[in-house]
Amino acid sequence: MIESKDVQDIARGAAILGAGGGGDPHLGRLLAENMIDRYGPVTTVALEEVPDDAFVVPVAMMGAPTVIVEKPPSGDELARALYAVEAVAGRKVTHVACLEAGGLNSMTPIIAAATSGLPLIDGDGMGRAFPELQMVLATLDGIAATPMAMVDEKGNTVSLETIDNPWAERLARSATVDMGCSASIALYPMTGPQARRALVPNTLSQALWIGGTITRCREEHRDVARTLAAELDGVVLFTGKVADVVRQTSGGFARGSARLDGIGADSSSRMVLSFQNEHLVADMDGEVVASVPDLICVLDADTGEPVTTEAMRYGFRVVVLALPCHPRWRTAEGLALVGPAYFGYDHPYVPVVPSER
Fold first, then answer.
1. For the segment 167-212, what is each residue's pLDDT rounded down to a tens digit?
2. Which among 123, 126, 171, 269 is placed 20 to 30 Å from 106, CA to CA?
3. How far is the C-alpha of 7 from the C-alpha of 34, rounded, in Å?
4. What is the mean pLDDT of residues 285-306?
5. Where's the S-Me-THD-like C-terminal domain (predicted)?
6. 127: domain range?
7. At what angle do helices 203-219 and 4-17 cross, to 10 degrees?
8. Residue 339: closest CA among 330, 209, 196
9. 174, 276: one domain
10. Are 344 and 289 in contact (CB under 8 A)?
């Protein structure tokens, strides 16, 4: 059961798992709290408890996070997207799921479950956030993204049937741009057995734990980044101050880079973070120290709060944390779909290895 009091910690924790993407966690928290206050707590279901005859549909917001902050949904678009998938598929949705673990996109299924009255699965399709629709474990399992529905705040609905998942991304991205670079989507309808294979279990529970850990660390004057690194098999890469951010919205994505000048033990070093909605590569003094599909997370150095790519500003003092991705992303098939080469980088993938740094 998710109540209003849980939402802030889930949003905060999912913003860490979102690797800088997935949308603004504060905006998502406000929307989710409002819907729970209006419709009541959301019932959650463990992934292993989903019945075989279930009809599971994940939901999300699609578009550039920078635009979604300025043009948030009203709240009913996600339920309308679910109903549009029902109309095409000829089946009633039985469970809502989270497409990606990100700040706003961890909140969208809570909003959809509250407004529709459907149970919410404790899991997600990635174990993190990625910028493109086909970048989910379901694609590795041959599960189709369509029938897919897209809804905007004006009342427009688009239904898609595509030949494969990359085409779903391509056509949906074009429609999202026409919708003002922001759309509510429902996609990847799946059965119970498919969901148990293609969803990462316990994502919302983990996000709740991470959010609570940040609060406890602050209260106990412990280092947030190093505590999370120790508990999640990650590594603290860098501590620095944001010296420059170059960001633009193009093709429905927020793309850019941030330059960090080191402070403290890293005062003689410099880091460059490259992002496409999410952080993709961390380069320290000309050497790649972390890259997609592992999670590159930026935290406020003083509070431990996650800093998303659209929120990063000149002068912020931050800590860069790297966490290992879901093991399936480290396979040859996973790296072909979401590895550095897909995004145009010529360096090999080097997995994050926990250290005492």
1. 999 999 999 999 998 899 999 999 999 999 999 999 999 999 999 9
2. 171
3. 10
4. 96
5. 164-352
6. 4-203
7. 100
8. 330
9. no
10. no
